[in-house]
Inverse folding.
């Protein structure tokens, strides 16, 4: 007889939390208190500790070498171009098929309880880096926005500001940059929103003020400088898929069995090293995320 | 009578003097050619030395693999384009010399010394291609043959690059004098496959690069221009041969 009771209380807690959210939003209170409630998913450090702190790639490599086409397509120049990037009036809005649209500012984001996750980032170009991220699980935010039943996909939109981002003045990609996940992928505990790395605030070139990190997908899925999260019911087409649908698929799961015409997906170069190593299935997170996909379909999704 | 004889003798001497000066010039050219060849040969070693120094000593490189691959590939292409420009350049100079009626001997207007440099430039291109392939095979594939086979069958850019590498390797091994002597008429046939390298290299560059930069466009357009010139020359030559045949037939009728 105790089990149903427990269930009831937990449900009540859950509903209370919903009321509490409503009240908090109405009063303009900080959303951090929503996430502090016991029923919500609390972010824990390194849930799947595949990568240890000893394996972490040095900060000088990961902060000096990355793709950020909003600034420039030169991986080594991003840092210099993004040096003066400012985001004082930055806001993150969550809308679409949600019952409780949210708008958060930087203060609200920084008040959300944080945790550290050491993830390997695998770029589609064939290089990788192990990075300690500071952030929180995306499912906390989506749950707070209360998605409707019809919501199936989550669309992320990056900042559009050609004045500050010179790369957006040319049309190499459709701006603003958008990316999308399936709702269950977005709700997975591995998927995080990061606002810091190496225990420092996120550097401009790495996607300040807030970026997505999905460790089992190629790096271009981990969209930087997010300003909008929209829940939709149809599979959207993300920026890179619009440009080259045969090369950049919707799923973009790290899969050494699916070859890219340009880069070998079987092997990857850890930044700072000279020789390539073998790429693992789903970037090493196969056991954690295989339940999201039908086993037969894994090699057909890309 | 005597004066006319004198002038005749002088006239008879003229071609002799002319050939003397030509011989002198040719000797000079030969010496220059040897020196320039040596210079070119050292120049072709420089990019490779630079690449090896990066590999051994440069700690500031974040993605050393990418640097080595792009640099070796770029230099191989640059040398190849230079080698491929030689014969159209020679044709151009001859055309100019003819139209301007330059007072230079036929041998000099042929500018044959350019052709010997063509071989050196081709050698340089193969040299960097070999480094390019070696870096790829060792640093990316760790000398694993089955990985190479997988890449060749699954990545079309690698297939194109491999075709270019095999052809340029064949051209390299048949570029020496003994090979030329032994192959005879077939030598020219084998060396006409150089146009395959052009196509394969263009495809390799286009399929390999994510975003084509200005220098990629220079490579592609110069190679295409030179190839189109070759096709034009070939079709003109064929037309010429065709009309010659017609004329001959008419004659014999």
């Amino acid at each position: 007889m105790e089990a149903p009771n427990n269930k009831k209380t937990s449900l009540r807690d859950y509903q209370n939390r919903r009321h509490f959210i409503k009240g908090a939003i109405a009063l303009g209170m900080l959303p951090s208190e929503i996430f502090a409630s016991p029923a919500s998913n609390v972010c824990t450090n390194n849930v799947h500790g595949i990568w240890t702190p000893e394996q972490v790639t040095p900060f000088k490599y990961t902060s000096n070498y990355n793709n950020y086409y909003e600034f420039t397509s030169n991986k080594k120049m991003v840092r210099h171009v993004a040096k003066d990037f400012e985001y004082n009036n930055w806001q993150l809005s969550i809308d679409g098929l949600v019952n409780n649209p949210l708008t958060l500012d930087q203060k609200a984001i920084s008040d959300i309880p944080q945790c550290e996750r050491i993830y390997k980032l695998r770029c589609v170009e064939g290089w990788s880096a192990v990075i300690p991220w500071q952030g929180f699980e995306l499912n906390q935010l989506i749950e707070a926005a209360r998605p409707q039943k019809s919501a199936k996909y989550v669309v992320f939109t990056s900042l559009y500001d050609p004045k500050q981002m010179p790369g957006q003045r040319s049309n190499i990609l459709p701006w603003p940059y958008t990316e999308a996940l399936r709702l269950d992928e977005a709700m997975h505990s591995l998927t995080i929103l990061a606002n810091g790395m190496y225990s420092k605030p996120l550097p401009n070139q790495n996607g300040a003020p807030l970026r997505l990190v999905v460790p089992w997908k190629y790096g271009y899925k981990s969209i930087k400088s997010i300003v909008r999260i929209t829940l939709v019911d149809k599979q959207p087409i993300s920026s890179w898929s619009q440009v080259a649908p045969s090369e950049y698929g919707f799923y973009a799961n790290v899969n050494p069995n699916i070859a890219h015409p340009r880069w070998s997906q079987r092997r990857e170069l850890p930044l700072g090293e000279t020789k390539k190593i073998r790429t693992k299935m789903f970037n090493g997170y196969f056991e954690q995320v295989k339940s999201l996909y039908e086993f037969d379909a894994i090699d057909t999704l890309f | 009578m005597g004066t006319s004889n004198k002038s005749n003798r002088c006239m008879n001497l003229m071609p002799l003097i002319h050939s003397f000066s030509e011989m002198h010039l040719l000797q000079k050219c030969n010496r220059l050619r040897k020196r320039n060849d040596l210079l070119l040969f050292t120049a072709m070693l420089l990019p490779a030395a630079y690449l090896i120094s990066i590999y051994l000593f440069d700690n500031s490189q974040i993605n050393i693999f990418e640097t080595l691959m792009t640099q070796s590939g770029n230099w191989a292409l640059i040398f190849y384009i230079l080698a491929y420009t030689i014969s159209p350049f020679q044709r151009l100079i001859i055309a100019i010399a003819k139209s301007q009626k330059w007072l230079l001997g036929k041998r000099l207007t042929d500018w044959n010394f350019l052709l010997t440099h063509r071989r050196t430039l081709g050698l340089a291109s193969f040299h960097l291609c070999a480094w390019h392939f070696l870096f790829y095979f060792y640093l990316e594939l760790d000398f694993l043959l089955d990985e190479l086979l997988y890449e060749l069958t699954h990545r079309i850019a690698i297939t194109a690059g491999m075709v270019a590498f095999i052809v340029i390797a064949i051209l390299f091994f048949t570029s020496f004098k003994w090979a030329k002597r032994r192959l005879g008429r077939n030598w020219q046939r084998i060396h006409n496959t150089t146009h395959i390298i052009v196509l394969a290299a263009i495809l390799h560059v286009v399929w390999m690069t994510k975003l084509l930069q200005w220098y990629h466009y220079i490579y592609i357009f110069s190679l295409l221009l030179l190839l189109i010139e070759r096709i034009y020359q070939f079709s003109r030559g064929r037309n010429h041969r065709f009309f010659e045949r017609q004329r001959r037939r008419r004659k014999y009728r």
Observations:
- Chain B touches chain A through 23 residues (CB under 8 Å).
- Residues 1-17 of chain B have pLDDT under 50 and may be disordered.
- The CA atoms of residues 174 and 182 of chain B lie 10 Å apart.
